[in-house]
Amino acid sequence: MVRLEAGQVQIPEGFNGVVTAFCQGSGARLAIRRQSRLGLREIYLQLLDAGKVVGILWRRAKTFVVIGWIFFVVSVPVYLGIAALAGFNKFYFPAHPQATLDAYDIRASYVTLAVGALAAVTSSIVLALKFRATASLLVIVTWPTIIAGNQVARSFVKPGPDYYERHVGAETFLVPWKYVDVGFGGSPLEVSSEDGFIAYLCFSNLHGRTDPDCSLFQQLRVLSKEPVDADLGLKAWREHRSQMRPGSDYDGYQSFDQSYRVQADRPGQIQHYFVRMNSNGELTRLVECRLDNGKFCTHSAHVGSRWFEYQGDLADGDETLDARLAALVESWRRK
Q1: Transmembrane residues, as ranges (predicted)?
Q2: In terms of pTM, does the model score above 0.85?
Q3: Which position among 220, 267, 294, 335 has the lowest Cβ density within 10 Å, counted as fewest Cβ atoms?
């Protein structure tokens, strides 16, 4: 027996472990009960907070619906402006690497306006049906979701290529997007042609699109040495040279005139050709002019292994310009 002081219970020695285990078990049960009470209290407080939130949504439903309409009205000029700017860039610079982002911005702007209008109308209808908290939630959830969603989705849009592959015979050229041949509103698709390719540039400084110092872009055709059937001027020269009448020389050119009729009952027309040849009698430059004063001409220049064709007056083209064009095109060739 274990003797205890006055006021204490006397416990036999053999029952010490039993009593200890019993006390420990009771303490655990008390702790569980205490934790359960605390858990229920937390749940109650959370429900109470949720109830407060629902109460705010219910009481402020009209305010949230009005805010939804304000967001929609303000977003109309904003997103229409974004779509207009993106549409302008995509139309005038379709080969720009940002064109894919412009296309996304256009679609996203229209989707945002449609969803915003739907949310505003739906929240008004739900409010009229007395589902006040639901009407508030429609406004609160819609606008943050669509604004954040647009930005997240835009981050996954890949820019377009910086270069486009073009071919001249067996040679491959990587033409920068600023020079690639694409019209307004067109699509700069990959082109593979044995006849060559077309580039657009400013002849004064050989810069491409987006150059603020150039107001006139001209077309440059790059053709292979043989065949030259893609160049109608060269083809006409070779096929009808024997029928042409020699004229007077002009600024190092030999001139030839070809008479022809478009229709039998119409007056005849004259096509003027200005030619330069090397010491071997091979054609190095052919200029085909439509007027007697040397205006509105097509230049075909043989430089190295390629032919260059571009438009301009007779005095605009020379070997210096041809050499600059050849160096630019050579820089695009895949080594």
Answers
A1: 64-88, 108-129
A2: no
A3: 335
